[in-house]
Amino acid sequence: HWAATKEDGLRWISFSLFGFSLLQSIRTRNDVTFILRLLVLNAVLVSIEGILQSLSGSDELLGFRRPRYGGAIFGPFVCQNNFAAYANLCLAIALGMALLPDILPRRETSNAPERFFWGFCAAILFSAVVLSGSRMGVAISLLIFCVMIVDFAFRRRGSSRGSGKGRSM
Asked: Is the dihedral of CA 16, 141, 83, 43 positive or negative?
């Protein structure tokens, strides 16, 4: 049994205050995009640490040690299901930035390199979920991939039909 301590309470209060202040600072769509990018990049960094720790077989890597019992908020070896849920949230965001046309701001040049980067981040997140050993996490990741691919296919199909409407035969 894990008992809550004073430090845990202070940690949750500080996270709550940080979250509320972050929500108060959102004013434009660019602010939301910036926060989503930070969220995905944070998840990718945690995932890379988890992947390296899993592949090394060590109990300690980069100063992070596997705890004997739960208690930390994120980490693939603290609570695999909590980590998988966090990674899947960020996986959906990363796939959205990679596949959906209106997520990234429109530029005069191609968005292809940035889309490739977010796709690569999605691959890292999926790998970390698989290595975390969460069966439901893997199932949800696969469901996210299927939904995003079907949505992408329907959007492409709809845009190709929409481009031929004005032609006369």
From this structure: negative
Q: What sign does the CA torsion over 40, 42, 46, 51 have?
A: positive
C-alpha angle 127-65-44 in degrees, rounded to nearest 5:
30
52, 57, 61, 66 alpha-carbon torsion, rounded to 10°: 110
**Chain segment 49-91, per-residue pLDDT in tens:** 778 777 776 655 555 555 555 444 444 445 667 778 888 899 9
Average pLDDT of the chain is 75
Kindly tell me the sign of the dihedral angle through the C-alpha atoms of 161, 105, 153, 112. positive
For residue 119, what are the contacts with CB-CB under 8 A and spacing of at least 6?
94, 95, 98, 99
Dihedral sign computed on CA atoms, order 31, 36, 39, 44: negative
Q: Provide the pLDDT for residue 149.
A: 82
User: Which sign does the torsion angle of CA 70, 75, 81, 85 carry?
Assistant: positive
The CA-to-CA distance between both ends of the chain, in Å, stands at: 74
Nearest to 129 by CA among 76, 93, 77: 76
Give 3-state DSSP helix, strand, coil % of the chain, rounded to 5: 70, 0, 30
Angle of helix 80-99 relative to helix 135-163, nearest 10 degrees?
10
